[in-house]
């Protein structure tokens, strides 16, 4: 007569062969003979994970650990919790793990991962450190540790961790890209810009142009900094509107290096760049057939400082005032919206959530600021998020009328102050030299560096950072104090 062990062996063989339903039947037969066997519950937990039945997997793995709390069964349990997103449950087992299995890399790694997902970064760092003492060759542990250091503003430690990642996985593009962000955040652009060439949006931008102009935008025609005094250069946008406005500062430098400069930009930016030529000979915001466009070399916009070989503070060329408004349009907006003696404050709370939802601010957070005496607030929120303007009594909604960035620049020029999240409006205000207070989440983008008392890219911009993750209240209290200094 078959024993429970016989059914376990049959079930395991079937599971290994991918015959999961038959394996489950065998395990069920084993349970009929021995329902206290922790190994059966553990194997069935793994099987349920393979079937994507995560809830059942969690229940079975919990039964296995309850019947026999060994480290192998804990590893399965933690995997089920991770698949189910139950990170708090992992942390509840912290004491047992540290008491019984303090040298188990997998369990320590998953404790770190749980704390990371619970936004308890200091605890996560502590457990990644413990795990790496056991397995110092773990790329993923070093990589996750680097990310946590970056969030916490310990960027030099992040750089060190990513350099270890480089040794473990030489020439890995992801490693080098994230190393570039860490290096640039500590203003080491001499090295950071080189690794920044591994960014995904660069490859996407090049691929788009190569598809549009296969004969003229080939890899061998990429501009790499050689003499192009007698040649036509095509520069094309990458990433979002804010990046384009920020890196447009380099276009006049490039224009001095070539005979003719063509620039492909997003349609909403085209009117702004036609009014602010920046040395550009032709703005392109539509597809032009290859036989109707003429250029010798091409380059993605965000590569310009690297191609130009900019070093040190020269990376911050044209810190402000390189964008000017259309004066006639600015006067029209003044007469329509801004003809009052109050302090005029423009606000925006949301950018493109495709890139980063952490930068979205609840619109109602601005309510206390609107109570400051002698102020008039204007909403510059457009498209996504603009429906939230209804919660702000007394605000004037300009955003509903703004179609492109030329109109936005003209309206902005009438303001005394801009207060907004990390979005394209901040870059436009900074590029125009308009006072702007940028509200940053706890995890700060590389471009704002580590010393948040200054903004290297724009002289007119001030930076306000969350004190802790998701704490918008604290940062708005800081802003209110600045608006009411007495």
Key phrases:
22 helices; four-stranded parallel beta sheet; Serine Threonine Protein Phosphatase 5, Tetratricopeptide repeat; 486 residues; six-stranded parallel beta sheet; Rossmann fold
Question: Summarize this, please?
Answer:
Helices cover 47% and strands 10% of the residues. With 486 residues, it is α/β, with parallel strands linked by helices.
Largest sheet composition = 6 strands, parallel
- Tell me, what is the CATH class of the largest domain? Alpha Beta
In the CATH hierarchy, the third-tier topology of the largest domain is known as Rossmann fold
How many distinct helices? 22
Give a structural overview.
The chain has 486 residues and is of the alpha/beta class. The protein folds into 3 domains: 1-85, Alpha Horseshoe (Serine Threonine Protein Phosphatase 5, Tetratricopeptide repeat); 201-316, 3-Layer(aba) Sandwich (Rossmann fold); 327-483, Glycogen Phosphorylase B (Rossmann fold). Helix content is 47%, strand content 10%. Strand 8 (417-421), helix 21 and strand 9 (436-440) form a beta-alpha-beta unit. Helix 12 (173-185) runs antiparallel to helix 13. The protein is globular, with a radius of gyration of 28 Å. The termini are far apart. The model has no long low-confidence stretch (mean pLDDT 94).
């Amino acid at each position: 007569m078959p024993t429970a062990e016989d059914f376990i062996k049959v079930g395991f063989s079937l599971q290994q062969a991918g015959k999961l339903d038959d394996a489950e039947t065998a395990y069920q037969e084993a349970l009929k003979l021995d329902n206290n066997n922790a190994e059966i519950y553990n194997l069935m937990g793994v099987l349920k994970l393979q079937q994507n039945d995560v809830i059942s997997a969690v229940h079975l793995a919990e039964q296995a650990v309850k019947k026999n709390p060994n480290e192998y069964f804990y590893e399965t349990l933690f995997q089920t919790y991770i698949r189910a997103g139950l990170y708090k449950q992992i942390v509840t087992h912290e004491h047992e793990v540290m008491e019984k299995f303090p040298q188990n890399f997998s369990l320590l790694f998953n404790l770190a991962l749980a704390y990371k997902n619970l936004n308890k970064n200091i605890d996560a760092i502590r457990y990644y450190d413990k795990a790496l003492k056991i397995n110092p060759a773990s790329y993923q542990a070093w990589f996750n540790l680097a990310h946590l250091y970056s969030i916490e503003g310990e960027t030099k430690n992040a750089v060190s961790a990513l350099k270890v990642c480089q040794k473990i996985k030489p020439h890995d593009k992801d490693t080098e890209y994230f190393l570039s962000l860490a290096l640039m955040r500590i203003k080491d652009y001499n090295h950071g810009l080189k690794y920044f060439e591994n960014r995904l949006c660069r490859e996407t931008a090049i691929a788009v142009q190569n598809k549009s102009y296969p004969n003229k935008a080939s890899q061998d025609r990429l501009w790499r900094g050689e003499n192009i005094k007698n040649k036509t250069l095509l520069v094309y946008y990458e990433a979002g509107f804010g990046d384009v406005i920020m890196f447009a500062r380099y276009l006049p430098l490039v224009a001095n290096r070539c005979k003719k400069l063509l620039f492909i930009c997003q349609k909403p930016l085209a009117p702004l760049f036609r009014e602010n030529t920046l040395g550009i000979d032709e703005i392109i915001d539509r597809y032009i057939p290859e036989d109707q466009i003429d250029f010798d070399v091409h380059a993605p916009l965000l590569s310009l400082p690297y191609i130009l070989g900019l070093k040190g503070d020269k990376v911050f060329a044209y810190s402000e005032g390189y964008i000017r408004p259309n004066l006639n349009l600015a006067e029209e907006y003044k007469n329509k919206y801004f003809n009052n003696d109050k302090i005029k404050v423009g606000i925006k709370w949301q950018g493109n959530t495709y890139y980063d939802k952490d930068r979205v601010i609840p619109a109602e957070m601005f309510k206390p600021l609107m109570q400051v005496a002698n102020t008039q607030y204007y909403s510059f929120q457009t498209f996504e998020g603009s429906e939230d303007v209804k919660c702000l009594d007394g605000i004037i909604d300009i955003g509903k009328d703004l179609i492109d960035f030329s109109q936005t620049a003209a309206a902005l020029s009438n303001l005394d102050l801009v207060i907004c999240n990390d979005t394209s409006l901040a870059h436009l205000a900074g590029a125009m030299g308009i006072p702007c207070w940028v509200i940053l989440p706890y995890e700060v983008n590389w471009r704002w560096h580590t010393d948040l008392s200054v903004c290297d890219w724009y002289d007119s911009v001030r930076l306000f950072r969350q004190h802790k993750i998701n704490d918008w209240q604290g940062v708005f209290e800081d802003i209110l104090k600045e608006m009411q200094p007495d």
